[in-house]
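About this split. The held-out portion is used to measure sequence recovery: a designer receives only the structure tokens and must propose an amino acid at every position. Recovery is the fraction of positions where the proposal matches the reference. Here is one held-out target exactly as it appears in the evaluation file.
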């Protein structure tokens, strides 16, 4: 009797464990189908494994229900197998949930954020907008007037006054007015603040001012050139900043790389264009500017400007923050980056010619450095492409699975793309069907240094790079080869 009483709880425990396995098997099966990244053969194999294991544990559990000694052994084996499958199902379900969450957050982006702030001098006693009641305000007379008017309305409401701002022709004269005391507060789009970094005389602005109020709005991007379905070959614009900051904000683009992708030949060509390339912007009516300044007016303007330069259609964009690479690269266990030069970034690392295994911080320093090279920004562009290539190679290898969840989570806030989650899942599915690596090559265009006036900074002579059109033509040829599958 005692032995039978002991076995009875084990019977019900084994039945409960099997029931949990069945529920998780159903949930996992539904999730796998919904995520839609597994090719048919692999999907069939996964389904076969999980459902055969569910059937086996069920048979062992039920077959041992009426038998005593042999039944106990079968139920124990069934419990062990069921627990293994439960753990496997939980891990698989977590992977799927993490993947979907990440893709939802970084894909299908068709808007970008734009911030407009109220600035006062650092030592100003005002701590809030209410404290600026009676202040003399300065604004830009024509540039970004719509956003400025919105902030002015908010200032009037919060200060319970009617501000009559002084108007200035450009952001530099506006900053001078603040510094010289002509005005006590200014309203300025944060994207334009980055232009002060190009002028030594205005380096004071970053440390010498403080923000009392920031209004954030979303701007719809013009992506009329995007394809409804992912084509076999296409060009993606990789844009980003190489300093610490948000990837969603409208700002200058210090990284300007076109990824020319052919899904049939498994080839990717990375084309780097220097940030200071002196070219007409798509919105400037023929006036030339630095390529990096195009980002101030939106990532779509950067795309259109590159389309004009290379005579191509750019269907998608992929924005990244190199600073955000730190967590992702560490989660990947580091990357192997090829360096064309030997150089040192104190106190982080010394990079040798050839492959260097780098952690996140070392990879960031490698991608940002330009002062160690006689070619300056040209070499930095090559190094950025080398980092991107190393990350792609690591992400398409088995190493991705070692720390999958952390890698996916690190992508949020680091990447943003106009590709839909369906597009990305289609690419992942293709990679699983054909796990061979991608052939990744890179080229860059060149030019000569000069000083010129620009569309965004009229009347001021700034450092630019005059394009070498021979190198641009050579890049056009290589782009067409990849697009055509040659």
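Reference sequence for scoring:
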């Amino acid at each position: 009797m005692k032995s039978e009483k002991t076995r009875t709880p084990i019977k019900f425990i084994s039945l409960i464990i099997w029931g949990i396995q069945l529920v998780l098997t159903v949930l996992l099966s539904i999730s796998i189908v919904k995520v839609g990244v597994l090719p048919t053969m692999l999907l069939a194999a996964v389904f076969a494994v999980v459902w055969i294991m569910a059937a086996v544990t069920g048979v062992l559990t039920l077959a041992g229900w009426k038998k005593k000694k042999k039944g106990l052994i079968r139920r124990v084996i069934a419990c062990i197998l069921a627990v293994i499958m439960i753990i496997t199902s939980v891990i698989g379900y977590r992977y799927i949930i993490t993947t979907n969450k990440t893709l939802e957050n970084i894909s299908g982006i068709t808007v970008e954020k734009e911030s407009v702030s109220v600035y006062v001098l650092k030592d100003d006693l005002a701590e809030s907008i209410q404290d600026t009641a009676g202040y003399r305000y300065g604004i830009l007379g024509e540039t970004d007037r719509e956003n400025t008017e919105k902030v002015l309305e908010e200032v009037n409401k919060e200060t319970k006054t009617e501000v009559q701002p002084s108007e200035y022709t450009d952001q530099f004269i506006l900053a001078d007015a603040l510094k010289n005391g002509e005005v006590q507060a200014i309203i300025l789009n944060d994207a334009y603040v980055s232009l002060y970094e190009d002028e030594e005389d205005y380096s004071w602005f970053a440390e010498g001012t403080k923000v009392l109020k920031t209004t954030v709005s979303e701007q719809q991007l013009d992506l009329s050139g995007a394809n409804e379905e992912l084509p076999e070959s296409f060009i993606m614009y990789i844009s980003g900043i190489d300093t610490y900051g948000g990837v969603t904000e409208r700002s200058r683009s210090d990284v300007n790389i076109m990824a020319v992708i052919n899904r049939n030949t498994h080839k990717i060509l990375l084309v780097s264009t220097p940030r200071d390339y002196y070219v007409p912007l798509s919105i400037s009516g023929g006036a030339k500017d630095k390529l990096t300044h195009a980002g101030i007016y939106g990532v779509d303007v950067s795309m259109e400007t590159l389309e004009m330069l290379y005579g191509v259609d750019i269907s998608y964009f992929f924005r990244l923050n190199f600073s955000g690479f730190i967590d992702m690269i560490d989660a990947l266990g580091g990357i192997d980056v090829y360096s064309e030069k030997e150089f040192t970034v104190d106190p982080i690392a010394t990079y040798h010619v050839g492959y260097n295994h780098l952690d996140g911080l070392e990879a960031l320093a490698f991608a940002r450095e330009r002062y160690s090279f006689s070619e300056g920004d040209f070499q930095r562009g090559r190094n950025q492409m080398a980092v991107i290539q190393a990350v792609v190679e690591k992400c398409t290898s088995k190493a991705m699975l070692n720390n999958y969840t952390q890698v996916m989570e690190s992508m949020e806030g680091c990447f943003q793309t106009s590709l839909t989650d369906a597009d990305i899942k289609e690419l992942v599915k293709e990679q699983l069907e054909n796990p061979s690596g991608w052939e990744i090559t890179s080229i860059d265009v060149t030019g000569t240094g000069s000083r010129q006036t620009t569309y965004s900074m009229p009347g001021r002579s700034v450092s630019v790079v005059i394009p070498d059109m021979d190198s641009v033509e050579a890049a056009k040829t290589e782009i067409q080869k990849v697009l055509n599958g040659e």
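Annotator remark: The two ends are 80 Å apart (CA to CA).
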